[in-house]
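Technical annex B. To support the medicinal chemistry partners, we prepared a structural model of the target in complex with inosinic acid, based solely on the information shown next.
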Amino acid sequence: MKVYTKEEMSINELSLTYDDISLIPTEVSRIRSRMEPSTETKFLGNKLKVPVVSSPMDTVTGLAMAKELNRLGCMGVLNRFDSSLKELLETDGKLDGITAVSISLHSDEELIERLAAKNLVLCIDTANANNEAVLDKCEEIKKNYDVKVMIGNIAHGSTLKQLVDAGADAVRIGIGGGSVCTTSVQTGIGIGQVSSLLNVYYAREKDNLKIELIADGGIKSPGDVAKAIAVGADIVMLGRMLAGTKETPGEVIKYNDQLWKKYRGSASFGVKMKNEFIEGEETMIPYKGNVANVINAISDGLRSAMSYMNCFTLEELRTKDAFAILSNSSYLERLPKK
Ligand code: IMP
């Protein structure tokens, strides 16, 4: 079997995603306990304990989620669909623990000015960052305010320099990989998440660009978080893994003797509520309790992966060059059996 470097995986013939690859422990580890490695990272000037940022979806990030993630050493990006943003602006006290908010392409100047004055990271929340209107908006914000801006999404690094030239500080990588995303089905657009990440990572390397990379969509487990960081992501953005927790907006529903919460795509009918082009689904997620449990599981899994891979820091994990590309049967062998 070939032990692949990141660079070799980046030019693999077929597009790859998390289930197609695995990390290979090829060294005797210096790490004696899972508690030794540090999952700390810096993202857009903020020190984080775990490299997790929440997706700005209306069933994922409201004020409660943003604040709890902040308390846990992660970052929440407030959604732009429900009343969270309005509530945030009405009461200044509510700003404690809010680090990032999403805006739309059509958000007005006054709103942006108010958010920038509070020094919040801004996320221009669109489906496709490769669009002149998105780049113009980014450029305009960066010209007028001293604020960090994340934009998205892209699936390939071919336009990365244009994004950086427009002033983007971070980019969401992934088109078609989200768990409630129907973009690829509806349009035929998008490639596997690992290939997307690697392509953008090497585009950044090649031109020595300064932009932070967010692995967005398709992350199902702590192991996928470890893989995303190992292939070069600075941070992961989670929708489904955080959905269904107590801190998400929305009611807990009892159905068939089980508790559930709603999870839906930002381009789903439930969000748009009109007969537009729909690129997202709506589903129910078993109720998971506190989001702290999810974050702790990610932190534990990541630290264990780092221990196998002989890494004290995430920076070391990002430079590891020992990957397998899995056959379908070896992928299935990796899964626990009933
Ligand atoms: P998940 O963690 O796999 O559930 O993916 C979450 C990501 O899916 C988000 O951060 C968005 O990038 C993407 N996404 C959210 N809503 C939609 C949608 O309606 N259509 C397509 N992609 C979406």
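Notes passed to the chemistry partners:
Residues 55, 57, 153, 172, 174, 178-181, 183, 216-219, 237-240, 265-268, 279-280 surround inosinic acid (CB under 6 Å).
Residues 6-249+292-325 form a domain with the TIM Barrel fold (CATH 3.20.20.70).
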